[in-house]
Design brief:
flat; mainly alpha; 4 helices
Length: 77
Amino acid sequence: MLREPVGPDLEAQVAAREVLDAMTELPPWQLEALLSVDDPESLVAYAKRRRMNPSTAASRLRIAREALALKLRRWRR
């Protein structure tokens, strides 16, 4: 029998749910840019696979991160 809680605590679970909910409100291109970070390939490889300039991919990722951060700030107020 485990006496200690296993896995993420309740606050971490709530925070993760907030992030996921906020991500569902993003346009598809921003969601794709954010999810590309989790991919093991580099941003340059991601850009080449999408036939875009690596600078464009980096810019889209920056914009998507800013949009997500803004949504989260609004939710947490």
